[in-house]
Amino acid sequence: MTEAAVTDAAVMGRAVRQFERLQRLVPLGNLRTRRDYLRARRMLDRIIDSIGNDGSGPAADLAETLGIFIDRYEARHVRMPKASPSDVLRLLMDQHGLVQSDLPEVGSQGVVSEILRGKRRLNARQIQALTQRFGIAADLFLSASR
Questions:
Q1: If phi over 0 gives left and psi between -120 and 50 gives alpha, with beta otherwise, what is residue 100?
Q2: pTM value?
Q3: Which residues, at least 6 apart from 1, have a Cβ–Cβ distance to it below 8 Å?
Q4: Average model confidence (pLDDT) for the chain?
């Protein structure tokens, strides 16, 4: 073996050992069981609580990486109930303690009321405003059953 190959093998060996140590703390990799999934969710919650709104740095990168594995597990194993766009909006309002008049980006209180009653659909501008406000994906409103 060449000196470079020996060095590469040594670096790879150290990297694998460090990754194994990290996996004992953070469930990185394919989440195979519900227990792994729940452990990953708890860890992600802790990381997010510790970094707050700071979306940069190693902790944010770790949160994003862990989120990828969680998303992959959920896509295979967690069935999401169907919800109408108005149900999604109502849930977000409840979670954030908002009333209809707190959503001027959607429209007047009357417009919000019509959306919540299913009398009116959210338009593209309203969906974009809501996704920015709540930091969620637009597909929560687009792919929801109507």
A1: alpha
A2: 0.54
A3: 9
A4: 87
The region, left, alpha or beta by phi > 0 then psi within -120 to 50, assigned to residue 79 is: beta
- Determine how many CB atoms are found less than 10 A away from the CB of residue 120: 16
Structure tokens at 120: 């009116």
Cβ neighbors of 71 (< 8 A, separation 6 or more) are none
Which positions ≥6 away from 100 have C-beta within 8 Å?
A: 93, 109, 112, 113, 116
Give the list of residues 6+ apart from residue 69 with CB closer than 8 angstroms, or none: 27, 28, 29, 30, 31, 40
Mind listing the pLDDT tens digit for each residue in 89-124?
A: 999 999 889 999 999 999 999 999 999 999 999 999
